[in-house]
Protein backbone atom coordinates (compact mmCIF):
# COMPACT_ATOMS: atom_id res chain seq x y z
CA UNK A 1 0.00 0.00 0.00
CA UNK A 2 1.30 3.45 -0.90
CA UNK A 3 1.51 5.92 1.94
CA UNK A 4 -1.24 8.53 1.99
CA UNK A 5 -3.83 5.99 0.92
CA UNK A 6 -6.34 4.26 3.13
CA UNK A 7 -7.03 0.56 3.18
CA UNK A 8 -9.31 0.98 0.16
CA UNK A 9 -6.69 3.10 -1.62
CA UNK A 10 -8.60 6.37 -1.30
CA UNK A 11 -6.55 9.37 -0.08
CA UNK A 12 -7.91 10.79 3.14
CA UNK A 13 -8.01 14.27 4.69
CA UNK A 14 -8.63 15.00 8.34
CA UNK A 15 -10.87 18.02 8.95
CA UNK A 16 -10.22 19.68 12.31
CA UNK A 17 -11.15 22.96 13.97
CA UNK A 18 -13.18 24.43 16.82
CA UNK A 19 -16.97 24.22 17.02
CA UNK A 20 -18.78 26.56 14.69
CA UNK A 21 -15.84 27.20 12.36
CA UNK A 22 -17.81 25.72 9.45
CA UNK A 23 -16.46 22.18 9.02
CA UNK A 24 -19.74 20.45 8.30
CA UNK A 25 -20.85 23.30 6.04
CA UNK A 26 -17.60 22.90 4.08
CA UNK A 27 -18.11 19.18 3.54
CA UNK A 28 -21.61 19.88 2.16
CA UNK A 29 -20.42 22.58 -0.24
CA UNK A 30 -17.48 20.51 -1.50
CA UNK A 31 -19.82 17.57 -2.06
CA UNK A 32 -22.23 19.66 -4.09
CA UNK A 33 -19.45 21.15 -6.19
CA UNK A 34 -17.92 17.73 -6.78
CA UNK A 35 -21.30 16.39 -7.88
CA UNK A 36 -21.11 13.44 -5.55
CA UNK A 37 -24.03 11.28 -6.50
CA UNK A 38 -26.48 11.01 -3.58
CA UNK A 39 -26.19 7.24 -3.58
CA UNK A 40 -22.41 7.41 -3.49
CA UNK A 41 -22.29 9.82 -0.54
CA UNK A 42 -24.86 7.84 1.37
CA UNK A 43 -22.97 4.67 0.84
CA UNK A 44 -19.91 6.33 2.37
CA UNK A 45 -21.90 7.66 5.30
CA UNK A 46 -22.84 4.14 6.12
CA UNK A 47 -19.35 2.91 5.62
CA UNK A 48 -18.38 2.84 9.26
CA UNK A 49 -15.41 0.75 10.12
CA UNK A 50 -15.34 -1.37 13.21
CA UNK A 51 -13.11 0.97 15.08
CA UNK A 52 -15.43 3.89 14.50
CA UNK A 53 -18.35 1.76 15.57
CA UNK A 54 -16.55 0.91 18.80
CA UNK A 55 -15.77 4.54 19.56
CA UNK A 56 -19.36 5.51 18.84
CA UNK A 57 -20.49 3.03 21.44
CA UNK A 58 -17.79 4.18 23.83
CA UNK A 59 -18.82 7.84 23.52
CA UNK A 60 -22.53 7.38 23.58
CA UNK A 61 -23.08 4.07 25.26
CA UNK A 62 -25.29 3.10 22.32
CA UNK A 63 -24.86 1.35 19.05
CA UNK A 64 -24.95 3.59 16.01
CA UNK A 65 -28.48 2.72 15.00
CA UNK A 66 -29.79 4.15 18.22
CA UNK A 67 -28.18 7.53 17.67
CA UNK A 68 -29.97 10.72 16.78
CA UNK A 69 -28.34 13.05 14.19
CA UNK A 70 -27.22 15.48 16.92
CA UNK A 71 -25.42 12.72 18.70
CA UNK A 72 -23.74 11.77 15.47
CA UNK A 73 -22.01 15.17 15.42
CA UNK A 74 -20.21 14.19 18.62
CA UNK A 75 -18.10 11.67 16.79
CA UNK A 76 -15.91 11.72 13.73
CA UNK A 77 -17.52 10.60 10.48
CA UNK A 78 -15.95 9.66 7.19
CA UNK A 79 -17.46 10.84 3.90
CA UNK A 80 -16.49 9.91 0.38
CA UNK A 81 -15.94 13.00 -1.76
CA UNK A 82 -15.24 14.05 -5.32
CA UNK A 83 -13.24 17.06 -6.30
CA UNK A 84 -14.78 19.70 -8.57
CA UNK A 85 -14.11 18.27 -12.05
CA UNK A 86 -11.16 19.95 -13.73
CA UNK A 87 -9.34 20.83 -10.51
CA UNK A 88 -5.62 20.28 -11.19
CA UNK A 89 -4.10 17.30 -9.39
CA UNK A 90 -0.57 17.26 -7.98
CA UNK A 91 0.13 13.88 -9.53
CA UNK A 92 -0.89 15.17 -12.96
CA UNK A 93 1.83 17.75 -13.11
CA UNK A 94 4.10 15.51 -15.14
CA UNK A 95 1.44 13.66 -17.12
CA UNK A 96 0.39 14.43 -20.64
CA UNK A 97 -3.02 16.01 -21.26
CA UNK A 98 -4.29 12.86 -22.99
CA UNK A 99 -3.38 10.55 -20.14
CA UNK A 100 -6.42 8.57 -19.01
CA UNK A 101 -6.29 9.74 -15.40
CA UNK A 102 -6.02 13.39 -16.43
CA UNK A 103 -9.08 13.11 -18.64
CA UNK A 104 -10.96 11.23 -15.95
CA UNK A 105 -10.28 13.85 -13.32
CA UNK A 106 -11.57 16.49 -15.73
CA UNK A 107 -14.85 14.69 -16.32
CA UNK A 108 -15.57 13.14 -12.97
CA UNK A 109 -13.43 14.74 -10.32
CA UNK A 110 -10.92 12.77 -8.26
CA UNK A 111 -12.20 10.68 -5.38
CA UNK A 112 -10.99 11.34 -1.84
CA UNK A 113 -12.31 11.08 1.70
CA UNK A 114 -12.83 13.57 4.47
CA UNK A 115 -12.97 12.67 8.15
CA UNK A 116 -15.18 15.38 9.66
CA UNK A 117 -14.55 15.69 13.39
CA UNK A 118 -16.45 17.27 16.30
CA UNK A 119 -15.02 20.64 17.37
CA UNK A 120 -15.98 20.57 21.02
CA UNK A 121 -12.97 20.83 23.37
CA UNK A 122 -13.79 17.72 25.35
CA UNK A 123 -14.02 15.49 22.29
CA UNK A 124 -10.90 16.69 20.54
CA UNK A 125 -8.22 14.35 21.76
CA UNK A 126 -10.29 11.18 21.27
CA UNK A 127 -12.43 12.05 18.25
CA UNK A 128 -10.17 14.39 16.29
CA UNK A 129 -6.45 14.74 17.07
CA UNK A 130 -6.02 10.99 17.63
CA UNK A 131 -6.52 10.40 13.90
CA UNK A 132 -3.16 12.09 13.20
CA UNK A 133 -1.29 9.13 14.63
CA UNK A 134 -3.63 6.37 13.52
CA UNK A 135 -2.19 4.01 10.99
CA UNK A 136 -4.13 2.47 8.14
CA UNK A 137 -6.33 5.45 7.34
CA UNK A 138 -3.91 6.78 4.74
CA UNK A 139 -3.69 10.36 5.86
CA UNK A 140 -2.75 12.79 3.05
CA UNK A 141 -3.52 16.08 4.65
CA UNK A 142 -4.90 17.92 7.64
CA UNK A 143 -7.34 20.78 7.08
CA UNK A 144 -7.58 23.00 10.14
CA UNK A 145 -10.58 25.29 9.87
CA UNK A 146 -10.97 28.49 11.85
CA UNK A 147 -13.53 31.27 12.03
CA UNK A 148 -11.69 34.47 10.99
CA UNK A 149 -14.32 36.57 12.77
CA UNK A 150 -13.42 34.92 16.09
CA UNK A 151 -9.71 35.66 16.08
CA UNK A 152 -9.78 38.83 18.16
CA UNK A 153 -7.80 38.16 21.33
CA UNK A 154 -9.26 41.27 22.99
CA UNK A 155 -12.88 40.47 22.10
CA UNK A 156 -15.86 40.76 24.44
CA UNK A 157 -15.38 37.17 25.58
CA UNK A 158 -11.82 38.06 26.68
CA UNK A 159 -10.61 36.45 23.50
CA UNK A 160 -11.60 33.00 24.73
CA UNK A 161 -12.62 31.83 21.24
CA UNK A 162 -9.36 33.03 19.72
CA UNK A 163 -7.31 31.45 22.50
CA UNK A 164 -9.18 28.18 22.15
CA UNK A 165 -8.50 28.14 18.39
CA UNK A 166 -4.79 28.80 18.91
CA UNK A 167 -4.40 26.15 21.58
CA UNK A 168 -6.22 23.62 19.37
CA UNK A 169 -3.94 24.44 16.42
CA UNK A 170 -0.92 24.19 18.73
CA UNK A 171 -1.86 20.65 19.75
CA UNK A 172 -2.49 19.63 16.15
CA UNK A 173 0.86 20.97 14.92
CA UNK A 174 2.75 19.43 17.84
CA UNK A 175 1.20 16.05 17.04
CA UNK A 176 2.24 16.42 13.40
CA UNK A 177 5.75 17.41 14.46
CA UNK A 178 6.02 14.25 16.60
CA UNK A 179 4.28 11.97 14.12
CA UNK A 180 7.44 10.57 12.49
CA UNK A 181 8.63 9.48 15.94
CA UNK A 182 5.34 7.84 16.85
CA UNK A 183 4.20 6.31 13.58
CA UNK A 184 6.40 3.70 11.93
CA UNK A 185 7.77 4.77 8.55
CA UNK A 186 5.89 8.07 8.66
CA UNK A 187 7.69 11.07 7.20
CA UNK A 188 6.64 14.59 8.09
CA UNK A 189 6.25 15.52 4.41
CA UNK A 190 3.64 12.81 3.95
CA UNK A 191 0.98 14.89 5.64
CA UNK A 192 0.47 18.47 4.53
CA UNK A 193 -1.45 21.09 6.48
CA UNK A 194 -3.93 23.68 5.27
CA UNK A 195 -5.17 26.30 7.70
CA UNK A 196 -8.49 27.47 6.31
CA UNK A 197 -9.38 31.03 7.37
CA UNK A 198 -13.13 30.73 6.91
CA UNK A 199 -15.89 33.37 7.00
CA UNK A 200 -13.94 35.96 5.04
CA UNK A 201 -17.36 37.23 3.86
CA UNK A 202 -17.99 38.82 7.27
CA UNK A 203 -16.77 42.38 7.73
CA UNK A 204 -15.78 41.50 11.30
CA UNK A 205 -13.30 38.94 9.98
CA UNK A 206 -9.57 39.43 10.24
CA UNK A 207 -7.89 39.31 6.81
CA UNK A 208 -5.91 36.15 6.14
CA UNK A 209 -2.46 37.75 6.43
CA UNK A 210 -3.46 39.21 9.80
CA UNK A 211 -4.77 35.82 10.95
CA UNK A 212 -1.43 34.31 10.01
CA UNK A 213 0.65 36.78 12.01
CA UNK A 214 -1.70 36.55 14.95
CA UNK A 215 -1.42 32.77 14.93
CA UNK A 216 2.37 32.95 14.82
CA UNK A 217 2.43 35.43 17.68
CA UNK A 218 0.09 33.41 19.88
CA UNK A 219 1.77 30.09 19.04
CA UNK A 220 5.09 31.69 20.05
CA UNK A 221 3.53 32.61 23.39
CA UNK A 222 2.37 29.06 23.99
CA UNK A 223 5.75 27.72 22.94
CA UNK A 224 7.57 30.04 25.33
CA UNK A 225 5.42 29.13 28.30
CA UNK A 226 5.73 25.42 27.55
CA UNK A 227 9.49 25.80 27.37
CA UNK A 228 9.63 27.56 30.71
CA UNK A 229 7.55 24.77 32.22
CA UNK A 230 9.86 22.07 30.94
CA UNK A 231 13.15 23.63 32.01
CA UNK A 232 11.71 24.27 35.46
CA UNK A 233 10.85 20.62 35.91
CA UNK A 234 13.65 18.76 34.14
CA UNK A 235 17.29 18.59 35.01
CA UNK A 236 19.15 20.73 32.50
CA UNK A 237 20.73 17.83 30.55
CA UNK A 238 17.37 16.28 29.77
CA UNK A 239 15.64 19.55 29.02
CA UNK A 240 17.16 20.13 25.56
CA UNK A 241 16.24 16.71 24.25
CA UNK A 242 12.82 16.87 25.80
CA UNK A 243 12.10 20.26 24.27
CA UNK A 244 12.66 19.02 20.73
CA UNK A 245 10.04 16.39 21.43
CA UNK A 246 7.45 18.41 23.23
CA UNK A 247 7.89 22.06 22.26
CA UNK A 248 6.35 23.28 19.04
CA UNK A 249 9.12 24.14 16.55
CA UNK A 250 11.71 22.56 18.87
CA UNK A 251 13.63 23.93 21.83
CA UNK A 252 15.67 26.63 20.02
CA UNK A 253 15.69 30.28 21.03
CA UNK A 254 14.18 31.53 17.77
CA UNK A 255 10.65 32.89 17.68
CA UNK A 256 8.06 30.48 16.32
CA UNK A 257 7.13 30.83 12.64
CA UNK A 258 5.34 28.42 10.31
CA UNK A 259 8.48 28.45 8.16
CA UNK A 260 10.47 27.15 11.11
CA UNK A 261 8.13 24.18 11.37
CA UNK A 262 8.83 23.39 7.73
CA UNK A 263 12.61 23.94 7.95
CA UNK A 264 13.15 22.03 11.18
CA UNK A 265 10.50 19.33 11.05
CA UNK A 266 9.27 19.13 7.46
CA UNK A 267 5.71 20.08 8.43
CA UNK A 268 4.42 22.31 5.63
CA UNK A 269 1.61 24.66 6.57
CA UNK A 270 -0.35 26.76 4.08
CA UNK A 271 -2.79 29.43 5.22
CA UNK A 272 -5.58 30.30 2.82
CA UNK A 273 -8.70 32.43 3.29
CA UNK A 274 -12.17 32.06 1.81
CA UNK A 275 -15.78 31.44 2.82
CA UNK A 276 -18.18 28.52 2.72
CA UNK A 277 -21.27 30.66 2.39
CA UNK A 278 -22.20 34.30 2.62
CA UNK A 279 -25.70 35.78 2.96
CA UNK A 280 -26.45 35.12 -0.70
CA UNK A 281 -25.23 31.52 -0.50
CA UNK A 282 -22.15 32.33 -2.59
CA UNK A 283 -18.90 30.64 -1.68
CA UNK A 284 -15.18 31.08 -2.12
CA UNK A 285 -13.68 27.61 -1.69
CA UNK A 286 -11.79 27.20 -4.96
CA UNK A 287 -8.32 27.69 -3.50
CA UNK A 288 -9.02 25.08 -0.83
CA UNK A 289 -10.13 22.65 -3.53
CA UNK A 290 -6.94 23.39 -5.41
CA UNK A 291 -4.90 22.63 -2.31
CA UNK A 292 -6.70 19.27 -1.95
CA UNK A 293 -6.10 18.59 -5.65
CA UNK A 294 -2.42 19.43 -5.19
CA UNK A 295 -2.15 16.68 -2.56
CA UNK A 296 -3.78 14.07 -4.82
P1 LIG B 1 -19.10 21.57 15.03
O1 LIG B 1 -19.86 20.48 14.34
O2 LIG B 1 -19.75 22.04 16.31
O3 LIG B 1 -17.66 21.23 15.25
O4 LIG B 1 -19.14 22.90 14.06
P2 LIG B 1 -18.74 23.03 12.53
O5 LIG B 1 -17.30 23.45 12.45
O6 LIG B 1 -19.10 21.81 11.78
O7 LIG B 1 -19.58 24.28 12.04
P3 LIG B 1 -20.85 24.33 11.05
O8 LIG B 1 -20.50 23.79 9.72
O9 LIG B 1 -21.98 23.72 11.77
O10 LIG B 1 -21.05 25.90 10.90
C1 LIG B 1 -21.32 26.74 11.99
C2 LIG B 1 -22.10 27.95 11.53
O11 LIG B 1 -21.29 28.82 10.74
C3 LIG B 1 -23.31 27.60 10.67
O12 LIG B 1 -24.38 28.43 11.06
C4 LIG B 1 -22.85 27.95 9.26
O13 LIG B 1 -23.92 28.31 8.43
C5 LIG B 1 -21.94 29.13 9.51
N1 LIG B 1 -20.92 29.31 8.48
C6 LIG B 1 -20.12 28.34 7.98
N2 LIG B 1 -19.29 28.86 7.06
C7 LIG B 1 -19.56 30.18 6.97
C8 LIG B 1 -19.01 31.25 6.19
O14 LIG B 1 -18.07 31.10 5.39
N3 LIG B 1 -19.54 32.49 6.39
C9 LIG B 1 -20.54 32.73 7.26
N4 LIG B 1 -21.00 33.97 7.36
N5 LIG B 1 -21.09 31.74 8.01
C10 LIG B 1 -20.60 30.48 7.87
Automatic annotation (TrEMBL):
<feature type="compositionally biased region" description="Acidic residues">
    <location>
        <begin position="43"/>
        <end position="52"/>
    </location>
</feature>
<keyword id="KW-1133">Transmembrane helix</keyword>
<keyword id="KW-0812">Transmembrane</keyword>
<keyword id="KW-0342">GTP-binding</keyword>
<keyword id="KW-0675">Receptor</keyword>
<feature type="region of interest" description="Disordered">
    <location>
        <begin position="36"/>
        <end position="97"/>
    </location>
</feature>
<feature type="compositionally biased region" description="Polar residues">
    <location>
        <begin position="70"/>
        <end position="80"/>
    </location>
</feature>
<dbReference type="GO" id="GO:0005525">
    <property type="term" value="F:GTP binding"/>
</dbReference>
<keyword id="KW-0472">Membrane</keyword>
<keyword id="KW-0547">Nucleotide-binding</keyword>
<protein>
    <recommendedName>
        <fullName>Signal recognition particle receptor subunit beta</fullName>
    </recommendedName>
</protein>
<comment type="similarity">
    <text>Belongs to the SRP receptor beta subunit family.</text>
</comment>
<keyword id="KW-0256">Endoplasmic reticulum</keyword>
<dbReference type="GO" id="GO:0005789">
    <property type="term" value="C:endoplasmic reticulum membrane"/>
</dbReference>
